[in-house]
## 1
Amino acid sequence: MPWYRYRAYDAHGALQAGEIEAATRECALDTLCRNGLYPLEAQEGRAVEHRRWWERQVFRTGRLSRANLSLLTRELAT
């Protein structure tokens, strides 16, 4: 089943955003309504992870070496 990104208001008027899995867009909207949300939009597709440039560069391997950690902290200190 496809995923849908949605934006909807809850019963308190707060804007909610998220993803839901449903067979069709209409099913996604119906599910949101049954959950007490008032949908503004539902678009097919998963959200793309947005990372800042420095997170992509610094943490691209998931772990910093001691040398890179030293360089990073020295750069931040000045």
Note: The two ends are 51 Å apart (CA to CA).
## 2
Amino acid sequence: MKLIQRCLLVLFAATFGVVHAATTIYVDSGVADDNGDGSSLATAKKTIQAAIDVAAKNDTILIAKGRYLISSSLKFVCL
């Protein structure tokens, strides 16, 4: 019986995936580059596109006051 329960649990996890906890990604044009993980202002991404690229469904992107050069269209997907 326990084997069946384990198999069902694995099947459920594989079918529905792991739930992503919403996170906040920070952007600050004043930092040197996009190497930060974006998890705080101290480790912010430099560009809005870099934040979009790492964002997942239900994440929030906070953009610090500053000047941002948009040289091409931002590319994002609404999930």
Note: The chain has a mean pLDDT of 83.
## 3
Amino acid sequence: MRTLDDKLVNRLEEILGAKNLVTDPEALEAYGRDETPGLFHPPAAAARPGSAAEAAAVLKAAREAGVPVTPRGAGTGL
């Protein structure tokens, strides 16, 4: 699993608050799959923005750090 640089983690925590940035490997397992059989790819982190402005700031920080972002919906696989 890829890890994030501390500078980016700190920036994301500034944007979201620590409770809205998931970095615990065990907690991230739920973000690595949906209902598609056999599909599992845990992320390095999961950001849970509370507004469009936070989402935009997260995407900007990731772009500046050269880190790819994969949007996630409800995880239903539909």
Note: The first helix runs from residue 6 to 16.
